[in-house]
Amino acid sequence: MRNLFITLGFCFFFTLSLWSQVTQKGIVKEYNTNGKTLSGVGISIPSANDYQPTMSNSDGSFQLYFSHHKAGDLIYNIRIIKDDYEIVNIHDFKNGWKLSPNDTLTIIVAHRNVIADRRSHYYNIMDRYTEKEYKKKIASLNEELSQQKINVEEYRQKVIDAEKELKKAYDKIDEYADMFARINTETFDSISHLALDYLQDGKVNLAIQLYENQNLVEQLNKKVAIRDQAEESIQQIIPKLQEEMAFRQIAGGKNNIERVDLIHNSIVSANPDNFEFQKDYFFFLVDQNKLDKAKSVGTRAYSLAHNPVEKSVTLSQLGLIQYRQGHYDDAKQYLQEALAENNKLKNDNSEIFLVQQSQNLNILATIYIDEQNFTKAEECLKECAEYGRQLLKYDSSYLEKYSSTLSNISELYRSIGEVNQDRTTLGQALEYNQASLDLLQFISDTDKVDKPLYAAARYNNRGSIFLELNQNDSALYYIGKSDSLWNIYYPTNMNKYTTYRCHSLNNLAIVYSRLQQYEKAHQAFDKVLAICDSSNSPMLLRETYVATLTSKGVLLRREKKYKEAINIYLHALALQMEISKDKKEKYSQKQSYLYENLATASFFSKDYQTAISYFQASRNHVQGLQKEKHKSFETEVAKYTYYIAYCYYNLNDAKHGIPEYKKARKMYLKFNKTTPGKYAPALADIDKEMKELKNHKK
Length: 698
What we know:
Layout: H1 2-20, E1 22-30, E2 42-44, E3 54-55, E4 61-66, E5 74-75, E6 79-81, E7 85-87, E8 97-98, E9 104-111, H2 112-146, H3 152-181, H4 190-200, H5 204-213, H6 216-225, H7 227-251, H8 254-270, H9 275-287, H10 291-304, H11 308-324, H12 328-342, H13 351-370, H14 374-391, H15 398-420, H16 423-440, H17 451-468, H18 472-489, H19 494-514, H20 518-534, H21 542-558, H22 562-582, H23 589-604, H24 608-629, H25 634-650, H26 654-674, H27 680-697
Parallel strand pairs: 1-9
Antiparallel strand pairs: 1-4, 2-3, 2-6, 5-8, 7-9
């Protein structure tokens, strides 16, 4: 009898298990083959705690069984297992998909090389189009200037705007190339097909005109006015408007971006309770740096968010806005709330949980680094690295994300080392940098990862750390490896790689200078200046230009060519003043540094009076920054005050020198209380020189 009860009990619970199962039907189709299905595709839901995986049948159909979820639940993962195939409609599953026994889940797959080739194809189309439109715009501005339709100041500002637009376009090309590579043209109507044909020919403006002729926004607004009778029509118009937005964003320009804003606004007005539409508009506004408006739309999107993922992504962007606006405390609060929401998915250990957590922690770490709260930044980045390691079980392409996090930790330790002159932390920076480089060797999905960019940048970073350690031979080896990679890859996409190439060349010049190979150093610096001069975005590269001129000036000073150095510094200063004016900066640390260099070169030229005026300018800037940013620049103020005093010492001017010495002494005594002994040598010099100056006065 006991055995009978055991058997009955087993059957009862087994039956309950069957009753609680939810079955998700699905089908696997091959990309752009008129609905052809594919058999033998493994489908799994990692971390679902259910009966997984399954495989598509001869007709492409499959079934997934869920015993730990109910109908309507969001599922955050899906994977396919078939050699050399990938999911094409991956964006349909990006933010989770709804479990439904009544609907059929469609997975579209393609050979990896198909998507990679199409992505490359569309990238090249948009690359050529973007550069052509930019050159056309600059030619038009040059014509307006020559005909005196605009003045020099207006011309300069419009060129800067055009270059910013160009940079933004290049930041987006990868994203749009991937989007068009994955489009299932089987669902396209005649207008969409024709628009895509125009894109293939690089005629983006004709594609836009095609959509514009349909008056889609006006159609949508009319349908909304008679919503009850037109709901189906509304939902048919929206995908067309989304296509139009994609073309307009590729084309860029003020009019197109304003039209995209209008379309977004019309879509959210027609669907005020749709989170996805509100979120898309929110992200667009953040991308366009319309931060105040973005906050308003983002707050609305957050009120419509129903699950932890939606809440987390919205809070994360709201935090990013606050960070960009300099409201660090508010930014941290939003990001902590985003982390808390995302933590609700922790038990699933899902891919989306790990990705979101990594992104939130990276932004939070950046804020802590800006605040020089290195302990907190380190905690965030180490946790982020752990999530990156876990992501590797989902997809090898996450090696790049994990490698980037390790590189960020490396940069953190490098910053700590710079601030504290701590060789131990610089050693840790090297360890993380090496781990990052090692990982990059294993990345196999070359179509998903820009290997030259990441490898060359990591080698350059590694060389920079050796520069900080004054290990110049090692620095030359790694920066040289970076330079060798750029020699190969920079010509393949100059618009994308210019900044990285310049950083590498600048470091190469610095290490040559350290090794007293001055001719090679000058050649590397001159290459950077030539790249900046010939670039499509010379105005955006002004800061790189200034940094290169400054470093070249230091090299000339090392060669004791003080007059040449002063001329270079003055050129750099004029450019930096332009940049500060455009940024509406009254005080600038970079400007202060240039005044310091001018002062130093003047001092070595024994032009002490000029040196004093430049050191005073440096001091004025850091004192102004101290008031503006509420951040301490006291050590810099003390340094410049001492240098001013020392110039007066060399002029035997006790009347002006002794008051400056006294001010410097007071500041250094204060510092010495905080870190005993560190400033003792400076205090000894001050006391000795002040005594000699007093005796000279007598």
